[in-house]
Amino acid sequence: MDACYASAHSGIENLIDRSLIYVSQNQIAMHDLLQQMGWNVVCKESPLEPKRRSRLWISNDIYDVLIENTGAKTLKSMLLDMSRISELELKPEAFVKMRKLKFLKFYHSCGTNSKILLPHGLLSLPDELRYLCWEGYPLKTLPTKFHPRNLVELDMSYSHVEKLWEGKQDLVNLKVMTLNHSRNLVKIADLSSATNLETMNLVNCTKLLELPSSLQHLEKLTHLNLRMCENLRFLPSLYKATSLTTLILSDCSILCSFPEVSSNLKELHLEGTAIEQVPSSMESLSRLVLLSMEDCVRLNNFPTAICSLRSLEVFSLNGSLKITTFPEISGNITELNLGGTAIEEVPSSIECFSNLRILNLGCCRRLKGVSTSIHKLKSLKTFYLEDCSRLEIFPEILDTMERLRYLELSGTALKELSPSMENLIGLEELRLNNCENLACLPDNFYKLKSLQFLCLYGCSNLVTWPDNLFSAIGGASLTEMQRDLHRLSSLENLDLTGSNLENLPKSIKQLPRLKQLILRKCKRLKSLPELPPSLKHLDAHDCTSLEEISSIKKLFEQAVLCKDRPYGFLEWIFSNCFQLDQKAVRNARTPKLQMLFGHMVTLLKDYHQEFPKINKVITCVPGSEIPEWFDFKSSGYSINIQLPSEWYYNSSKNFPTFVVSTVVSFQDYSGDREILIRCECRLKSRNGDCHDLSCSFLTWTKRIPGSELIGSDHLFL
């Protein structure tokens, strides 16, 4: 803006004071009325001839101006969404008349294929340009007659350029250069004149072999992003680029030397590079806050000099397979990621990391032990240990850890959890997925009063439950949990997938905050007890012995009649629960599903006190017939219904509830792909007015392991 207007800052501040615009994350947003007012002012410049206006932003207007080559000398700004036009061939002299053009932006709101073609090249671009954005620019270079002295920002993302221009150009005003995804770019020309360049983005320029040595003299350069420049082997020295604070070299896969940079650098991303050694000279990076060397598979252990980086807060070595020892780093670290490394133990010296909030040791398959001093990490909030397949013992927690919220122990070799777990008084989420050796939980497990999410998916050897939490012990005899389950008063999500339960405890109804209950593949589960009124999502997929679910009738009644809280939706999944098939149930002692669901519909019909708190109820059960109590039926995927004249009493309290049912034939459908069941309802009045309603149900998401089959027709309601 400064390049176009002498008093841009004061003008912006004035508009902010009047609440007409606001600035967020270095971007300006304006009120719709202000935008419309600006559009109106421009349109009044030439109401009938858009080509004579100073600014063009309507796609059709720009299309006409470009194809007819009628751009006026007064044109200052052109903003074109190429997604909104058909292909357009420009003549070489398309911009010759637009001598005062300062702002040119050709972009795609969707897709990346350029629709502007230059079959005969381009003669020139206006020298007055301050901002040039041309996504997918189709030529190998910019026009030779274009002199970018006034250019402040250049964005040629997804372009076909091999080099921007021949020789040396005057780039004294250039502040931002972006050439992301220009996969034909081979060379960056001399930048010695770009003394004000601050940001340079060259992401995924896969043919770029080198950078100009003049880069080191750019004293105002703060951000350099070379991610995915996979043929870039070396960098020029950046030691003199003293303003550089962020350097991104992620996935420069053949870059083998540690970059030479200024001591003012704050962020250094070297993920996926071929670096083998880190020089001791890195101790000079005294202001470095973030160092990421994830997936540096050739990297050996770090020098001791790293401990002198007193400003370092985030250090990531995930996937760097040759790292065998726990690094000695500054005690100011807040996030440490060592997942997928070859370390074997966490030393007691970890207690020095008093500011550590995130510790990631996931997939450290040689890790055998974690020091008991872990309890001294009073700032720790998140601890990952998933897939540490040799970890058999979780350390004693010798003191309270108030801030630890998330603990991931899935896929470990743990056989039991220590009673000292009760000291994790702030723990909200505990994952023990696929801990196949886990045989029991501690008796005082119920003391985790902050626990909201508990996942025991695939704990196939869990045969002993705490006496005060579950009543029975062992495999087939594991039939009922006990009274103290309700002590987990904060529990919101409970995942018991693959458990050998035959029944859930009656006390489960006392979990006041339980919203999601996952019972997938509980093959022995026969019935559901009364469930807590807070429950919104019940997933009992593949519970092949389940035959009694009448308790959900009360859950539905509570949802409809409850005035204290909005429910939003209820979702019950009983796919592959073949004992609930309507045909099978008719001759059984259990109530028919038709009766159960029919009761729900009757309840809605009779409910006239106020609009129900729920707006969507979805259930899925095996079955091949639409319930008998449906008045309107049709084969196929659509139906037309003539509603009676009195269907609506001009009151929102009496707006009808629509119940829709469909049968889907899956024919051994593989559950590793998801299905979206969508219902669309169009209400059309006699005078032609239309109102659309819709709801959708996403089934069998990727949470179901691959190759699992859905074995029959299913009824959706």
Automatic annotation (TrEMBL):
One of its GO terms (biological process) is defense response. The keyword Magnesium does not apply. Residues 621-677 form the C-JID domain. Residues 377-553 form the Disease resistance protein RPS4B/Roq1-like leucine-rich repeats domain. Keywords: Leucine-rich repeat, Plant defense, Repeat. This is Uncharacterized protein. Residues 5-45 form the Disease resistance protein Roq1-like winged-helix domain.
